[in-house]
Amino acid sequence: MGLGLALFVALPACREDQAAQRRRAQAKILRRQIDSLGEMRVAAREKRLVDERWLAIAVDEAAVRSVIDAGLPQETLVADRFRVHVHRAEVTFSSGTSLVRLNARVSDTRSPDRFADVVYEGGLDDIAVAADGKMSTRVLVDSIDVPQAQTGGADAPLLAAATDELAGQNLETLQSLVPPVAIPVKLQEKIAVDGFGDGAVQVEAAELPVSVKVARVLPLSGRLWVFLDVSVGPWRKIAASPSASPSSVKKP
Question: pTM, whole model, 2 decimals?
Answer without folding.
Answer: 0.72
